[in-house]
Please model this.
Amino acid sequence: QFELVESGGGLVQSGGSLRLSCAASGFSFEDYAIGWFRQTPGKERDGVSCISNDGLRIYYEDSVKDRFTISRDNAKNTVYLQINNLKPEDTGVYYCAADRFCPTVHISGRYYYNSQGAMDYWGKGILVTVSS
Model:
């Protein structure tokens, strides 16, 4: 049985930092890509970052690429999302999700991150609130 559990959220002032963790169990973690998604009121649940099973391919949504860093430790079955210089618009419920591959689109011979792509297995989410 697949299980993904997020931790590390909370209330932070704008300009602060958080490190989110996604702990996985019940499957072969090293065979799966892991993505981070967020959802805010009135918006779709969209991906912000994804990392391949071996950590060699990393993707970011354009609005977060200068401030967010995704990493994984396969020995600990854990993926991290370091968020620096938090902004109020970062507020939302953050989910981690697993699939064989990160969702991408193929354009002009290159692959780009598809922030609206589907993933197979999901955690329950954790709230991040950024005050102004």
Q: What stands out?
A: The two ends are 40 Å apart (CA to CA). Residues 97 and 122 are 4 Å apart (CA to CA). The chain has no helices and 13 strands.
